[in-house]
Amino acid sequence: xxxxKRTKGEDRGEEKNNRGTKEENRGNEERxxxxxxxxxxxxxxxxxxxxxxxxxxxxxxxxxxALTFELYQLSEEAKVETLRLSGLIANCKYYDKTLAExxxxxxxxxxxxxxxxxx
Length: 119
What we know:
Layout: H1 29-33, H2 41-95, H3 97-114
């Protein structure tokens, strides 16, 4: 292996450390003694509280999703029942026209509420 020869301008007695300051030097013995992974009691309590809050948030989010789905199912059921009622009123028109007209007035509110698209 080749050894690099020093030029006349280099100082032979002084070694340069290219790693920067003492804190940045990875070979620093004082730095090796520090254990970065350990946490203090206060930090551990904080982490436990955070994880508990995240668990609660996940649980509440799951409940919200379940309620949203249930609300969607009930909305769809209301649409189906409104259409079914419309069919029954049309069938009632055969037997009593005046009663069917009164029921159509009530159905009109339900129709606008559940079946018309919002703009």
